Structure formats: C-alpha cells, structure tokens
Amino acid sequence: MNKDELKNMLTMVANGTLSVDDAVTKIKLQPYDDLGFAKIDTHRGVRQGADEVIYGEGKTAEQISKIVSHILENSAKSVLITRMSEDKAGEVSRCVPLHYDSASRIGIAGEIRKKKDTGNIVIATGGTSDIPVAEEAAQTAEFYGNRVTRLYDVGVSGVHRLIDNAEVLSGAKVVIAVAGMEGALASVVGGMVDCPVIAVPTSVGYGASFGGLSALLSMLNSCASGVSVVNIDNGFGAGYLANMINKI
Predict the structure, then answer these.
(1) CA triplet 207, 133, 226: central angle to 5 degrees?
(2) Are strands 197-201 and 174-179 parallel, antiparallel or unpaired?
(3) For the chain, what is the total number of helices (H) and then of strands (E)?
(4) CA 13: distance to chain centroid?
(5) Which element (helix H / strand E) includes 20?
(6) Strand (E) positions, the chain?
(7) How many CB atoms lie within 10 A of CB 87?
(8) pLDDT the model gives residue 69
(9) Across the strands, what pairs with 99?
(10) Residues 6+ apart with CB under 8 A from 246
(11) In this structure, what are the phi and psi dihedrals at residue 151, rounded to the nearest 5 degrees?
(12) How far apart are CA 215 and CA 201, in angstroms?
C-alpha cells in the first residue's frame, strides 16, 4: 500500500463507502507479505515515501522474479533492483517488464518514472573506473524522478577538468563525489560548492588502497565542511540519500 492508496482508503472511510472495521482489517493485513523465502515490506512506501528496493546479489533469478511480481501486483508500479547480473536480468525480463543497465547492474521493473521539477543532482567521478558505482547512484536517483548531471573522469590528477565544470557544480542542489585511490575528489568538490556533498569511496586502486579503505578514511577525514560519506562502493545509498535531500 502506497501513500495515495492509503489516502484513498481514508477518504472512503470519511465518506462512508468503507467501514472503519474493513479499513482496520486492510491495514492489519498490510505490514508485510510472507512469500516463504522473503517477507515483502508492503508498508515501506507509507513509512518512508519510497517502496522496498530489491538487492539482487545472492538471490536467484526466480526469487527476484517472484518478489518483483508480487510488489508490482500489490504495492508499487515500479521496482528498483540493485546488484543484478546480466544473466539474471535476462531471466527476470521473461517474467516482468524490465529495463536493465549493465554498467550499474541496476534493473527497473514496471513503469519508468517521469522526472520531477526539483533541483539538480551532479555526480562526479575521479576516474573512468569509478563509473559503475557512479551509475548505480545516478540510476537510483533517476528512478526516484531526479534530474542528474554526470561529470565523469574529473579527478584531482587533472584538477583543471573539475574546475572547467565549476558552473555546473555551483548549480547543483546535491553533489555525489565518487572516487577510489586516495579519495581526494570529495574534499576538492566540498571546497567549491555551497550544497551537501555525498562522498562515495570506491574499491578502485592499487594494493595500498586496501579495497577502498584508504579512500573511505580520507573522505571521513575531509577538511571541507558539508561532506558526508557512505560505505565503499555504495552508489545506491548515495543516490537514495541525494534523492531525499533533493526533495526537501
């Protein structure tokens, strides 16, 4: 049940076309639907304003298909699936309408949402190798109806590339800075803009980067104000948070 459906139900109670007892029964039955291998959180859209997202890694294509089908039939018009392999996407697409992006491994089942008239989210990467994580953030933000501008390969080893895009950065409501190695991009961006910066450390880099730990620690120790940090390679978390900020 999403917010619109809840409002509609309450309107029906108010005008007498639905009894209070029947409404209570509907709400009681809604907290989650048990599929045996998964418990679908059908009230998440009411609680948080966004429906449940499916984490595809570790699930079979059959499990993903059943979860998606249930959500589309009962609580949402579109479903976001993260970390889904191309093979699984091919199988799922035979069961439900699916748009799949191989770079980010993001799948969108059901309707594609229209862009909303909100602020712009700018996503910048240190290098081309960071694009898969950046695209996870971009696809997530766009799924929720946000406008997204991509600035890829503008890292500090050639900082003039970033400076050339200062005007684009200054027009952002949120900036997502995605970088591996030493993760310096977040601090530089943080010193250029007056909006929140969400830093995403990636596991890109040589041995001493420790699978993204060096970038994570650098970003956590950023000297620029207004920089927050999500977990290593967590493009989804950054895109979701940017969407929340952009809606304010």
Answers:
(1) 95
(2) parallel
(3) 11, 11
(4) 35
(5) helix 20-28
(6) 33-34, 39-40, 54-55, 78-82, 98-101, 106-110, 120-125, 147-151, 174-179, 197-201, 227-229
(7) 9
(8) 92
(9) 108
(10) 118, 119, 121, 141, 146, 173, 174
(11) -120, 95
(12) 5
DSSP 42-95: TTHHHHHSS---EE-TTS-HHHHHHHHHHHHHHT-SEEEEES--HHHHHHHTTT
Token pair in block for residue 70:
């249930």
Interior/surface letters 64-74, b for 16+ CB within 10 angstroms, e for the rest: bbbbbebbbee
* Side-chain half-sphere CA neighbours of 237 within 13 A: 13
Q: Which residue type occupies 67?
A: I
Burial (0-12, 13-18, 19+ Cβ within 10 Å), 115 = exposed
- Distance between start and end Cα atoms, the chain: 23
Query: What is the reported pTM?
Result: 0.86
CB neighbours of residue 56 within 10 Å: 22
Instruction: Give the pLDDT confidence of 88-122 residue by residue, as tens digits.
Output: 999 999 999 999 999 999 999 988 888 877 889 99
Low-confidence ranges of the chain (pLDDT < 50): none
Could you tell me how many residues make up the chain? 248
